[in-house]
Specification:
The chain contains 6 helices and 14 strands. It is of the alpha+beta class. It has 2 domains: 7-190, Glutaredoxin (3-Layer(aba) Sandwich), CATH 3.40.30.10; 206-285, no CATH class. The strands form 2 sheets. The protein has a 10-stranded mixed beta sheet. The protein has a 4-stranded antiparallel beta sheet with strand order 11-12-13-14, with helices on one face. Helix 4 links the parallel strand 6 (118-122) and strand 7 (150-153). Helix 2 (47-60) runs parallel beside helix 3 (100-106) and helix 4 packs across helix 5 (179-190). The longest helix has 17 residues, at 129-145. The protein is globular and about 55 Å long. It comes from Pseudonocardia broussonetiae.
């Protein structure tokens, strides 16, 4: 009996550009598990901690994720990381926690500066099967290559692009790569570059800007993590955007479309979903 295809099997031709999950800041909580389907609310934390995390995320445009080392290794104090992904403010601070009160305090605590990147691979199988099946091999490969920097994480978004990889502090999201390609993406990020092939976008930008930066990277060939900084974004008409980028100076116009997928977009969904896609209208150097 043939198993039904998973959501990531059916999404191999889906456009990645413009699909990075939104987030200006990230709060990462080390918790080996088990993780509930709704990770933070259903993983053993008290109501006060859940409420505080939700309020923080709403206030700062942030995301709260559970993290663990590949293989669910545990022991010792658990870490937290508070990440600022905003351009020009990229920073990671860290500390340890032992109880809910300490975790709530960590939302505002200065912590200590964490140097170096963090690589998060969604391996949240209770949320979507693809994240476990495709995420865990990538997480294991990254853990072998970069043990101090690699973590499994709870649901990121865009399960159909599994495995999903986030490079912090910049908040670049990637999807659909092999474990070996993921290790290469991490190495490139450490060297200060990104590759457009598997890039979904940067979490701090709205989808139209993510898509515009994708086309600008293809047009210019630039790969720097800080290249093509957003200067302005203007709605020209319903669904059409003009995005001005700098370093180097490029102007991109894209048109947003809602595409009916004709299929569920996650393994747990029961009804067909829709996708946001962007068509390139024009791209040109400016200045």
């Amino acid at each position: 009996m043939t198993a039904a295809p998973r959501c990531s099997d059916l999404a191999v031709d889906d456009a990645r550009a413009g699909t990075a999950p939104p987030g200006d800041r990230w709060f990462l909580v080390e918790h080996p598990g088990p993780w509930g389907r709704v990770a933070f609310a259903q993983s053993g934390f008290g109501p006060a901690a859940v409420t505080a995390m939700d309020a923080w995320a709403r206030e700062v445009g942030g995301r709260v994720l559970l993290i663990r080392r590949a293989g669910r290794a545990t022991g010792g104090l658990r870490r937290w990381f508070r990440v600022d992904s905003r351009p020009g403010h990229e920073e990671v601070r860290t500390g340890t926690w032992t109880d809910d009160d300490g975790l709530v305090d960590a939302l505002r605590a200065p912590g200590t500066v964490h140097t170096g990147p963090l690589f998060l691979t969604c391996a949240h199988g209770r949320h979507d099967t693809c994240c476990a099946v495709r995420g865990r091999p990538l997480a294991a490969a990254l853990a072998a290559a970069r043990p101090a920097e690699a973590w499994e994480c709870s649901h990121v978004g865009g399960c159909r692009f599994a495995p999903s990889l986030v490079a912090l502090p910049h908040g670049f999201a990637f999807g659909g790569m092999s474990p070996q390609e993921g290790v290469g993406i991490a190495a490139a990020y450490v060297d200060g570059t990104v590759d457009a092939e598997f890039l979904r976008g940067r979490s701090v930008h709205p989808p139209a800007v993510q898509a515009a930066q994708h086309h600008a990277r293809l047009f210019t060939g630039v790969r720097g993590v800080d290249a093509l900084a957003l200067r302005s974004v203007t709605a020209l008409s319903s669904g059409t955007w003009r995005v001005v980028l700098g370093d180097p100076d490029v102007v991109v116009e894209v048109r947003e479309r809602r595409v009916e997928a004709g299929r569920p977009l996650t393994c747990s969904a029961t009804a067909p979903g829709w996708m946001r896609e962007f068509d390139l209208i024009s791209v040109a150097a400016s200045g």
